[in-house]
Amino acid sequence: MVLSQLIRWATTPKGMSTILLGKMALKMAIASAISLIIAQGLQWEYPFYAVIAAIIVMSSTHGSTLKLSIQRLIGTAIGAIAGAIFAIALGSNSWSLGLCVFLTIFFTSYWKLNEAAKLAGYVAAIVILSHSQSPWLYAWHRYLETFLGIAVALLVNNFIFPARADTELRRYLSQTLVHLEQFYRLVIDCAFTGNYDRPSIDVLKLTIINSLVAERELWQEVRQGRTNEPIETRVNEAWEFLIRRIWEHILTMEHTVLARQQDTFWQILSPQINQLALETQNTMLILATAVESYQSHLALPDIEVAITNATEKLNQLKEVQQADYSMDELLRFFTFFYTIEEIGRKLQKMATMLNYSALHNRV
Fold first, then answer.
1. Cβ–Cβ under 8 Å, residues 129 and 92
2. Which of 302, 257, 256, 301 is nearest to 276 (CA)?
3. How far apart (Å, rounded) are the C-alpha atoms in residues 26 and 22?
């Protein structure tokens, strides 16, 4: 009984997210422990620097961990060298510290090494304040300890619960579609009830933006071949564009809804729009499940019917005396309607692309 409940929970979005967090925490714990054992075995003076590096650079995939590792190595090297130079030239004082930290962070950021900038300034400050008597020796030891922690993190990430870029990409695509559905639902609710849940929407927006940023990096990893999935079964790269366009469309809907002034004209198509919105939400959730589970045989006749019904009803509005409504209000409504229709069409394209990949693979 308990086992079956655990199995069911593990297949839910919350369960899968919790398991993923547990795997990441375990990998960090293993990497930090191994780094400490090796550093202590080598009798290094500050083994905790290796532990810190192993924890900080650990990420969800090998590619993202490698990217963070390179940035950390660069930041450590720049900070150690700069700190040593300023400690020897200007000594250990506030002027030397301030000038060194400023130049280190400024030039590291200027060279687009954003992940390394703060670390470089931090290492430089430590060299100047605590190790000005032997700065080059300290700088060299910090670099070695950082390198050890990074090497251990890469090995652990590659052999313990390895997460491939394609698997992570599918998971992020699924999560983004779920969050887009929630955002879409709140905007539709605002359109017909006037209720605008700003706190929930603001949180969703931030979550979606973060997911889109993470997806961009994962797409790059997949394009660079950091995946074991055959090219013919990968998610079509057009998904990246389509999901971003759906995100932009929902933002357009939100703006239109918040700017509207009259309800009468909007209520004429209320039944058809509500049905189309419902089928659009269902389609987003179906695609979210399909892309993460590698499902490909999708049939979405209901959304096509909903689009057709809504379009036919819209065409009948030509007989309505539209002169009774302001041009601005008409433009807002038609923008809202055609944006909903466009979202439905893009979701259909995404489903077709999954089906095409499966067909191509069978052939």
1. yes
2. 302
3. 6
Q: How confident is the model at residue 244 (pLDDT cuts 50, 70, 90)?
A: very high
| Token pair recorded at residue 26 | 């375990």
Residue ranges per structural domain of the chain:
24-159, 165-362
pTM, full prediction? 0.68
Q: Is 84 within 8 Å of 124 (Cβ atoms)? A: no
Cβ proximity of 221 and 63 under 8 Å:
yes
Residue 225: partners with Cβ closer than 8 Å, 6 or more residues away:
none
- DSSP secondary-structure letter at 235? P
| Residue 361 to residue 233: CA distance in whole angstroms | 7
**How many Cβ atoms are within 10 Å of 161's Cβ, its own excluded?**
14
d(CA 351, CA 340): 17
The amino acid that residue 207 corresponds to is T
Q: Percentage of the chain with pLDDT > 90?
A: 20
Q: Where does residue 43 fall: left (phi above 0), alpha (psi -120 to 50 degrees), or beta otherwise?
A: left
Model pLDDT for residues 148-205, shown as the tens digit of each residue? 988 898 888 878 876 677 787 888 899 899 999 999 999 998 888 888 888 889 999 9
| 165 class by beta-carbon count within 10 Å (0-12 exposed, 13-18 middle, 19+ buried) | buried
Tokens describing residue 339: 């944006």
**Where would I find the H helices in 160-297?**
165-193, 198-223, 238-259, 264-268, 270-292
What is the Rg, in whole angstroms, of the alpha carbon atoms belonging to the chain? Answer: 27
Does domain 165-362 match CATH 1.20.120.160?
A: no
